[in-house]
Specification:
This protein has 1 helix and 28 strands. It has one helix spanning about 320-330, and strands spanning about 10, 15-25, 30-35, 40-50, 55-65, 65-75, 75-85, 90-95, 105-110, 115-120, 125-130, 135-140, 145-150, 155-160, 165-170, 175-180, 185-190, 195-200, 205-210, 215-220, 230, 240-245, 250-255, 260-265, 280-285, 295-300, 305-310, 315-320. The two termini are about 20 Å apart.
Length: about 325
């Protein structure tokens, strides 16, 4: 194994963790991790991976009043979805990062049923999805607009980055596609058990990947929902996270409840022209974690850095093998 592919890790002590998120800081590798402790104080850690020095350094350590479910980033702002242990209700806070470990809390409010905050890049609008509705919030005008509201209950929600009017939500093992310009909802069975993650391809329109409790990951073209255009069927564990690489979408990472991560090259369904008939393949399996990996994210600094967080509070940085980089770049 060459030096560039050696894992680097940091422990947050005896703290449970469920999420890690990348932060866009030029070409730096910066990640935010939230703890999930029922009986302990919770915190958000912002760390930077220094690739040349092969180490992680702490930039911020921020107390939070509950168990962190999800962190969504928009430049220097962190939108944090957390559960208040006393009220047993979902809350949303916005934390703005500053230099030298400083920060300020812009707001902290009750938002029952909140599942995601969607933050399109270079857009003053964010979208708040709950288990029943999607609300559009204009940050400049400080105005709300309820764009989807229905009686059904939903779990996950993501927005198509290529078409801001398209949203995909999960309902147990079903996917539901809705265009905000229409009232029609396209609903289809995507997995046999609950869908655990949804991620849109950043470079190819209408393509997304799902991971399920049924030990399957599938790539879909949401214009043709009769069948998945690719299915990972040789998996042995529930797929907790499924993520496209934001630079080279032929690279896909999957994390599992047994503490492993699989990196695949799936050129056949990517935006990359397939010059030959080479099959998709497993690039590498990472096995440094000892328990379920609920948080997985690619760095926004460069294409080759992957961060993961295990439930026991260990964050590990892995990189794409050098041989695979050369295959992609040359």
């Amino acid at each position: 194994m060459d030096q560039q592919t050696q894992p680097v890790q940091i422990s947050f002590g005896e703290q449970n963790c469920k999420c890690v998120s990348n932060i866009v800081f030029n070409k730096r590798h910066v990640f935010a991790v939230g703890t999930w402790n029922v009986k302990k104080n919770n915190e958000i850690y912002v760390n930077e991976y220094l690739e040349l020095e092969q180490k992680l350094i702490q930039l911020h350590r921020i107390p939070i009043n509950g168990m962190v479910e999800k962190i969504i980033t928009k430049k220097e702002q962190l939108y944090v979805i957390y559960i208040d242990p006393q009220q047993r209700k979902t809350k949303l806070c916005c934390i703005e990062l500053a230099d030298n470990g400083r920060y300020q809390v812009n707001f902290d409010l009750l938002y029952e049923g909140l599942t995601n905050v969607i933050c399109p890049e270079d857009d003053p609008t964010i979208y708040l999805s709950s288990n029943k509705s999607i609300i559009q919030f204009d940050l400049n005008k400080q105005s709300f607009d309820n764009i989807i509201d229905d009686n059904d209950l939903y779990n996950l929600c993501e927005q198509d980055p290529h078409h801001r009017n398209l949203f995909v939500r999960s309902q147990n093992n079903y996917l539901c596609i809705q265009d905000t310009r229409e009232k029609k909802v396209t609903k289809f069975k995507a997995h046999s058990l609950e869908i655990l993650d949804i991620d849109f391809n950043p470079n190819k329109q209408y393509y997304l990947i799902t991971g399920g409790e049924d030990c399957l990951a599938k790539v879909w073209d949401i214009r043709k929902t009769q069948y998945a255009i690719k299915s990972f069927e040789d998996l042995q564990n529930s797929v907790l996270q499924a993520k496209f690489n934001k630079f080279h979408d032929q690279l896909v990472s999957l994390s599992f409840d047994d503490g492993t991560i699989s990196l695949y090259n799936i050129t056949s369904v990517s935006s990359v022209p397939q010059l030959n008939k080479e099959d998709d393949y497993l690039v590498k399996q990472y096995d440094e974690h000892e328990d379920s990996i609920y948080g997985l994210t690619w760095s926004r600094g460069t294409a080759w850095v992957l961060a993961s967080i295990g439930y026991s509070g260990h964050m590990i940085i892995n990189t794409v093998p050098t041989t695979e980089k050369y295959k992609i770049l040359l």
